């Protein structure tokens, strides 16, 4: 909900808290000399770049595997910034959602869950950060947004820079969804980043299996399918050509 500006800054009311609606000035990790960055897949939404700390991604993957009998969820914490005219979010922390309700196939963020999240957000290490999106699992069902998920996105994460991360811990698949005007769509844009001073994280940034590997696997499967279809077409055409060649030979011999 928009409220009057203060000192020229547009403000909004988010779950009872007043925050700036527009991005703060910042430096993307790809331009930060202290960071190592790994591009997951080519950009598909030029006006919003997504960066996630590799240790946070690994934390979410481990959390997602804790209970595969039901959906788990949490919120993505970080910064919404702008470098020149390019907007980006930088995901630096993750908070598991406590006190949620679920029946195995659905997850609901209860008032108690939001209250707990707000308390943790006000802790010192999050004092200058925002909720930039949410995460939940689909154990064994694939990565998509159900109608219930869309309701959560539209009602609780409805700002243009807030994303949804869906993880299937059984099939080992992940997908990010972003706002595209009024629609919620898949995105291939995704970067890992880590501090150059952290050798373990720098190593992990290249070892972690993430969205790039999943996308490459799908692309390879599609390519193999296309090659198989192409091979069958060639075999069919070769067979037809051979058939007509045989008929022509029989006709010539008969005429002789």
UniProtKB/TrEMBL annotation:
The keyword Membrane applies. One of its GO terms (molecular function) is metallopeptidase activity. Keywords: Membrane, Transmembrane, Transmembrane helix. It comes from the Bacteria. Pfam families: JAB. The chain crosses the membrane at residues 235-254. Residues 52-156 form the JAB1/MPN/MOV34 metalloenzyme domain. InterPro entries: JAMM/MPN+_dom. This is JAB1/MPN/MOV34 metalloenzyme domain-containing protein.
């Amino acid at each position: 909900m928009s409220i009057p500006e203060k000192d020229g800054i547009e403000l909004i009311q988010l779950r009872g808290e007043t925050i700036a609606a527009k991005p703060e000035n910042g430096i993307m990790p790809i331009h930060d000399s202290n960071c190592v960055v790994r591009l997951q897949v080519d950009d598909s939404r030029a006006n919003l770049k997504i960066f996630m700390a590799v240790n946070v991604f690994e934390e979410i993957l481990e959390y997602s595997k804790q209970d595969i009998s039901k959906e788990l969820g949490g919120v993505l914490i970080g910064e919404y910034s702008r470098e020149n005219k390019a907007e980006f979010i930088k995901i630096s922390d993750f908070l598991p959602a406590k006190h949620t309700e679920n029946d195995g196939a659905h997850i609901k963020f209860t008032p108690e869950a939001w209250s707990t999240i707000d308390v943790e957000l006000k802790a010192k290490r999050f004092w200058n950060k925002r909720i930039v999106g949410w995460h939940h699992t689909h154990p064994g069902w694939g990565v998509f947004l159900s109608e219930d998920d869309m309701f959560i996105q539209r009602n609780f994460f409805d700002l243009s820079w807030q994303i949804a991360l869906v993880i299937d811990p059984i099939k080992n698949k992940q997908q990010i969804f972003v706002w595209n005007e009024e629609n919620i769509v898949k995105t291939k844009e995704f970067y890992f980043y880590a501090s150059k001073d952290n050798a373990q994280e720098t190593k992990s940034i290249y070892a972690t299996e993430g969205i790039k590997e999943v996308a490459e696997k799908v692309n390879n499967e599609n390519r193999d399918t296309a090659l198989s279809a192409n091979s069958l077409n060639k075999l069919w055409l070769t067979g037809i050509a051979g058939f007509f060649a045989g008929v022509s030979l029989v006709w010539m011999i008969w005429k002789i």
